[in-house]
Amino acid sequence: MRMAGKTVLVTGGNSGIGFAAAKRLSEEGATVVITGRNEATLSESKAALGESAFAFRLDATDFVGLESGLASIVRDVGNFDAVFLNAGDASLTPVGGTTVEQFDHLIATNLKSPFFYVQALLPHLRNNASIVLNSSIGNAIGMPGMAAYAASKAGLIGMARCIASELSGRAIRVNVVSPGNIRTPFWRTVADAALIPAVHEFATRSVPLGRLGEAEGVAEVVLFLCSSESSYVQATELYVDGGVTGAMMGAPAYRQG
């Protein structure tokens, strides 16, 4: 098994891509620690992951309690071999209709939090560890109403490259996964429940491969980046988007006939 004997932290591991990644890492032998804000879903996710998993309530934007919270986790599970910083906010921030508080909260969750997580984790990361940040195709495609989200996800790319440069002396790798149209609870943040089927259909037509992605597909890429199979991959962004960013004109919406 590719992650046997390894300990991995997954933030936001109680839902969507985070849970799928935690599950896949666990299946490959890792001791997985998931964090999140919702006690109920954390408990459910831990039960689904099994006895080798741990769950801790930790708010991604609780910067005051971050270091002590992580230190408490480490006392229970030991240092980490890999970290998937997945927790995020996909709220709409349309120009002309966004408050300073909404903008600041999104940036704090998606950009400030990963930076300070890495900083707080430094004493608890083993040499040769892997850090994976979760960005989005939103960093590149200019989605209306998502300006703060796009800024935060684009910021992760530059941040990852700088941190990779700083941590290469310890052989710690820092890479980014950028999912596209993935079937997760994310869609509830951008559309009413009744509209989600129509949104899914529209999103599917924009994907060259002609289908939505699944969280499990992203989890496979996260597993690769966390494992020794990617030992020579550093400061790289991997798109998992069915071709949206690289071959947009191949999507059903643009095909002739």
Can you describe what's shown?
The protein is built from seven helices and nine strands. It has about 260 residues and is an alpha/beta fold. The chain has a single domain, classed as 3-Layer(aba) Sandwich (Rossmann fold). The strands form two sheets. The chain has a seven-stranded parallel beta sheet, sandwiched between helices. A two-stranded parallel sheet has the order 7-8. Helix 1 (about 15-25) crosses helix 7 and helix 4 (about 100-120) runs parallel beside helix 5 (about 145-165). The longest helix has 22 residues, at about 100-120.
Q: Strands of the largest sheet, in order across it?
A: 3-2-1-4-5-6-9
Can you identify the CATH class? Answer: Alpha Beta
* Major sheet summary line: 7 strands, parallel
Number of strands: 9
Q: What would CATH call the homologous superfamily?
A: NAD(P)-binding Rossmann-like Domain
Describe the structure using short key phrases.
257 residues; Rossmann fold; 7-stranded parallel sheet; two-stranded parallel sheet; globular
